[in-house]
């Protein structure tokens, strides 16, 4: 199987699994918001998850991605080191988890009071289990990505999403409320973690005969490479979670619900870009190691073009139909999420590029550069949130996210260009054609928007926009129907 076929196959597997994960997440979001929890309960749940995500940083550091980088390298160079690497990673992770979960169990009441919400103490106590389950679920998924076994990695993600939906809804229906939904998350991640760890043990730990000697300095390099990755991960959490925590501190649980709903919709739309980035990134490490940078450039430019072709029109359409979409699907109680979603439409484009680029930089060995950029912009994001949330509410939080992420994406693209020498003029011409297609599509959707009075008309408007986009993209030669058919089949 050549590299392109391998990428297409991996992308299919990842996209299917990501689709299962995102559809189950969307159903969970819809069922909880529309039927089972009021805005206060919904906000309380996701505010607690935001706090736990910050604590999770200490429990994970950058070990997962650091291990994946060395799994990718040594599976080709010296497979006998793989069992040693797995043992080192597991030992470090267990030590960190023991420290973090013990501290959380001892201090959960104090932490809840310090954050201004004593009622969150039960969520934080249950968070010790959440952190362990989530850590092993995501780490096994990333490790299998490092081995370029994207089908297995994708399956773990799909299992976690489907199980979360099943158990979260079941526990809420049984009368456990928002706390029951959190336990549903815990069970979902625990099941996927069990599957992932089993695969790692059977396929890799027992498959490779351990080398007689652990390569000198390899464990140290594994730990050292986790440092810039930790900085990047910390910055990612500041971007994705700390704003939710600050909204909860400065505003109300209902405000958290509005903001979180907007971000969840954005995450749902980002599934294809995340799948593509997850699929192609291990190839950059392999190609750099063998000096095939021309091939790496073609893969990145093609992927970037496809991402822009999909997300520029999609986000413009989202801005236009955000109001009827939110109020008709989730109910009038969540109308406060409309302006958040419209502002975060800009973030969707930026994050789509980030999903394509960030992991690739790690595999190219530029984790430190990315970490500096991410850390700087995340500190700026934190500062902007402190200023804008008390003044402008949830809209201020969304604006801070878009502003700082714009800078981060620009730096990422500069780093990629320095590594791969992108053909900027060609990419600029492509972007111009995409904007022209988007303009025609937007005019058509705007004309039918006043006619939207129910969900049927809403989906008709969306379908019209998709149809116009498809026809124009095919006509402009930006979509090859035969290639699309081959990917689907």
UniProtKB/TrEMBL annotation:
Keywords: Cell membrane, Membrane, Transmembrane, Transmembrane helix. It is a multi-pass membrane protein. Its main location: membrane. It is found in: Cell membrane. The keyword Disulfide bond does not apply. The keyword Membrane applies. The chain crosses the membrane at residues 20-37, 43-64, 85-107, 119-138, 150-176, 242-261, 303-322, 334-353, 387-411, 431-449, 455-479. It comes from the Archaea. It holds the Pfam family Polysacc_synt_3. InterPro entries: Poly_Biosynth_Transport. GO terms for cellular component: plasma membrane. This is Polysaccharide biosynthesis protein. It comes from Natronococcus amylolyticus DSM 10524. The lineage of its organism: Archaea, Methanobacteriati, Methanobacteriota, Stenosarchaea group, Halobacteria.
């Amino acid at each position: 199987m050549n590299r392109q076929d391998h990428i297409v196959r991996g992308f299919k597997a990842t996209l299917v699994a990501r689709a299962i994960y995102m559809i189950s997440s969307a159903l969970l979001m819809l069922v909880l918001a529309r039927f089972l929890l009021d805005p206060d309960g919904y906000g309380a749940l996701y505010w607690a998850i935001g706090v736990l995500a910050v604590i999770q940083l200490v429990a994970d550091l950058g070990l997962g991605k650091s291990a994946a980088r060395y799994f990718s390298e040594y599976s080709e160079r010296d497979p006998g080191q793989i069992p040693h690497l797995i043992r080192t990673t597991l030992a470090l992770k267990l030590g960190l988890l023991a420290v973090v979960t013990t501290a959380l169990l001892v201090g959960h009441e104090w932490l809840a009071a310090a954050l201004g919400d004593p009622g969150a103490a039960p969520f934080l106590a249950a968070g010790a289990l959440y952190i362990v389950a989530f850590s092993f679920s995501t780490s096994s998924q990333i490790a299998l990505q490092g081995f370029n076994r994207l089908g297995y990695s994708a399956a773990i993600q799909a299992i976690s999403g489907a199980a979360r939906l099943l158990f979260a809804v079941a526990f809420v229906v049984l009368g456990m409320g928002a706390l029951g939904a959190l336990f549903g998350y815990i069970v979902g991640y625990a099941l996927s973690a069990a599957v992932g760890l089993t695969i790692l043990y059977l396929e890799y730990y027992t498959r490779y005969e351990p080398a007689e000697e652990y390569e000198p300095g390899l464990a140290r390099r594994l730990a050292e490479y986790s440092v810039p990755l930790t900085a990047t991960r910390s910055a990612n959490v500041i971007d994705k979670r700390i704003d939710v925590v600050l909204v909860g501190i400065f505003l109300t649980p209902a405000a958290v619900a509005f903001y979180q709903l907007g971000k969840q919709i954005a995450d749902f739309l980002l599934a294809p870009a995340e799948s593509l980035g997850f699929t192609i990134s291990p190839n950059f490490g392999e190609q750099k190691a063998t000096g095939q940078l021309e091939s790496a450039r073609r893969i990145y430019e093609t992927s970037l073009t496809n991402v822009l072709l999909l997300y520029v029109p999609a986000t413009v359409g989202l801005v236009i139909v955000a109001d009827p979409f939110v109020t008709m699907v989730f109910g009038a109680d969540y109308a406060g999420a409309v302006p958040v979603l419209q502002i975060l439409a800009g973030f969707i484009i930026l994050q789509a590029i980030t999903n394509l680029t960030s992991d690739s930089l790690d595999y190219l060995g530029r984790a430190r550069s990315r970490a500096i950029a991410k850390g700087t912009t995340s500190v700026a994001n934190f500062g902007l949130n402190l200023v804008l949330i008390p003044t402008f509410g949830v809209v201020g939080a969304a604006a801070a996210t878009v502003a700082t992420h714009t800078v981060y994406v620009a730096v990422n693209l500069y780093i990629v260009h320095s590594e791969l020498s992108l053909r900027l003029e060609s990419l600029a011409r492509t972007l111009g054609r995409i904007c022209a297609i988007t303009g025609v599509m937007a005019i058509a959707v705007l004309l039918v928007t006043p006619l939207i009075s129910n969900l049927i008309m809403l989906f008709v408007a969306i379908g019209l926009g998709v149809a116009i986009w498809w026809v124009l993209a095919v006509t402009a030669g930006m979509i090859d129907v035969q290639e699309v058919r081959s990917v689907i089949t």
